[in-house]
Amino acid sequence: MIPIFVISLIRSADRRASVTAQMANLGLPFEFWDAVDGKKLDPETIAQVDFAEAQRFCGHKLSLGEVGCALSHIRLCEMLVAKQIPRAIILEDDVYLHMHFKEIVNSACHKSDADIIFLIHGKAKSWPWKKTLPEGYRLASYVSPSKASQRGIMSTAGYILTLQGAQKILKHAYPVRMPADYLTGRLQLNKLTAVGVEPCCVDVNIFSTTIDDRDYGQHIVNPVNTSS
Predict the structure, then answer these.
(1) Where in the numbering of this chain does the Glycosyl transferase family domain appear (predicted)?
(2) pLDDT band at 144 (very low <50, low <70, confident <90, very high)
(3) Which domain CATH number covers 31?
(4) In a domain, 187, yes or no
């Protein structure tokens, strides 16, 4: 099994207990990756954020909670690159794993060398052919939207990332100017090759969000005009 990292705030004891119980039940080794707490950002960290560019790029303010979440995923990518980890499963701590998660993930990794495998996703546009996975699940290849498209795969709750994928993401990580799900899910920006497990093999929202200051305004205007 490839390594599993669960992004979680140190203070989120209930979420950590839920993840620990699930992993034990499925026989999966994992590590917690301590999330960056948006409520405790120091001046040096704030200096890594371009709030004005975020407003222009996203069409709404970037909250401190979103900054913390984005940095949590970015720093995990930096660790994968620093340690040259070929591939890792990255989960957030509010996930509920389906009972055949282990078999599905192992099969997906054997059947695809894509930069990113989404384990939960929205209505992503995919090619018509699908690869079979255990228990009736399928593996879909996603189409990268056009440069002017506003579409994206807006979830960072569960995905599998290769070393090459982490390197591609980091090219667009700084200054921090977008939520984590824009950074991973805007394929027209990050140039990731992407596939996804369908239906999703993890569920979310079993806990209230810890990003309670997010401004759910208008989303991305035009990714082609962003700085890289």
Answers:
(1) 1-184
(2) confident
(3) 3.90.550
(4) yes
